[in-house]
Design a protein that fits this description.
The structure is a single chain. The chain has 14 helices and nine strands. By secondary structure, it is of the alpha/beta class. It has two domains: 161 residues, NAD(P)-binding Rossmann-like Domain (Rossmann fold); 122 residues, N-(1-d-carboxylethyl)-l-norvaline Dehydrogenase, domain 2 (Orthogonal Bundle), CATH 1.10.1040. A six-stranded parallel beta sheet has the order 3-2-1-4-5-6, sandwiched between helices. Strands 7-8-9 form a three-stranded mixed beta sheet. Strand 5, helix 6 and strand 6 form a beta-alpha-beta unit. Helix 9 packs across helix 12 and helix 12 runs antiparallel to helix 13. The protein binds NADPH dihydro-nicotinamide-adenine-dinucleotide phosphate (NDP).
């Protein structure tokens, strides 16, 4: 199948690698040198514009920071709409927002373009391994069409509901990740300050009911080792928590915990900047308490 992939960022790149192994791929990236480097390493063509990438593609995949960024690729002489033909399946793997996505879908439907949201979870490790969870929003027919493509990089590909439902699911997931991260940072810092070694505290949590993905994997591998790799920008998690807070409000759910989570991430993002990793708010908690979580 001819597939276009736009957005070769931290997660888009390993996802596109899997697509290149199974399909005829065209890639486009805003910073052209990254697309050129991808093209030198993987079987694909490198497009100069979104229009060129989409021309002749049966499926177009985007993986950009926000839904507004996706919207921004549509128009103009070099935009996606100038390249996409009727019948194209357009899958947005951005962790986006349901509202903007539904607006884009309403614009594309009369043009005969099948637009579905398909955000992913599993991190850059999961993308490299091809084991992502993919949360799809769209019609049954769109989902059936999308599934084999998404299985290039997804192990669990789920239809969540109509357009926007995938983004809602993903935003709530990431808000929970953020809440777990902040709460674990606070609890661990207090335990360490009281004299309990961080590693022992984490091991006991992981054999108890307070455990989470953050305590089982992220903190042991990235915080206690002091490696702090940059795999997912805090700016993006901040965006996800904000989308989740808006989603809860739209459903009439007051959600004080997730609203506070969103506010704390906004503050941490403002303090740490655009390139900080999403686990770095734990550093702020450490600094405030005057202790470090290490082996
Ligand atoms: P990155 O910041 O690493 O990469 C962003 C990509 O989008 C780059 O290719 C960048 O191009 C491009 N881009 C940014 N702004 C624009 C724009 N206005 N127009 C066109 N292209 C643009 O992000 P990630 O790859 O980490 O994340 C992408 C999406 O996937 C986000 O929605 C994120 O929340 C989600 N996600 C990320 C995960 C992760 O572990 N990293 C996990 C799960 C989901 P350029 O090279 O020019 O900067």
């Amino acid at each position: 199948m001819r597939i276009a992939f736009l957005g070769l960022g931290a997660i888009g790149t390993p996802m596109a690698v899997h697509v290149a192994k199974q399909h005829q791929l065209a890639v486009w990236n805003r910073t052209g040198s990254k697309a050129a480097a991808f093209g030198a390493a993987h079987p694909c063509t490198v497009a100069a514009t979104p229009r060129e990438a989409a021309a002749g593609a049966e499926v177009v995949i985007t993986c950009l920071p926000t839904s507004s960024d996706v919207d921004g690729l549509l128009d103009g002489p070099d935009g996606l709409l100038a390249g996409m033909a009727r019948g194209t399946l357009f899958l947005d793997c951005t962790s986006g927002d349901p509202e903007t996505t539904r607006k884009i879908g309403a614009r594309l439907a009369p043009l005969g373009i099948d637009f579905a949201d398909a955000p992913v979870s599993g991190g850059t490790n999961g993308a490299e391994a091809g084991t992502l969870t993919v949360m799809v929003g769209g019609t049954d027919a769109q989902f059936q069409r999308a599934r084999p493509v998404l299985e290039c990089f997804g192990r669990r590909v789920e239809h969540m509901g109509p357009l926007g439902a995938g983004h809602a699911m993903k935003a709530v997931n990431n808000a929970l990740l953020a809440a777990n991260m902040l709460a674990l940072g606070e609890g661990l810092v207090a335990l360490v300050k009281s004299g309990i070694p961080a590693r022992k505290a984490v091991e006991v949590l992981n054999a108890s009911s307070g455990r989470s993905f953050v305590s089982e994997t992220l903190v042991p591998e990235r915080v206690l080792t002091r490696l702090w790799p940059l795999t997912f920008r805090l700016a993006l998690l901040d965006k996800d928590a904000r989308i989740a807070a808006g989603f809860l409000a739209g459903q009439g759910v007051s959600g004080p915990v997730l609203h506070l989570t969103s506010e704390l991430l906004r503050q941490a993002h403002a303090m740490l900047g655009e390139e900080a990793d999403y686990l770095e708010p734990i550093r702020l908690i450490e600094q405030e308490a005057g202790v470090e979580l290490h082996e």
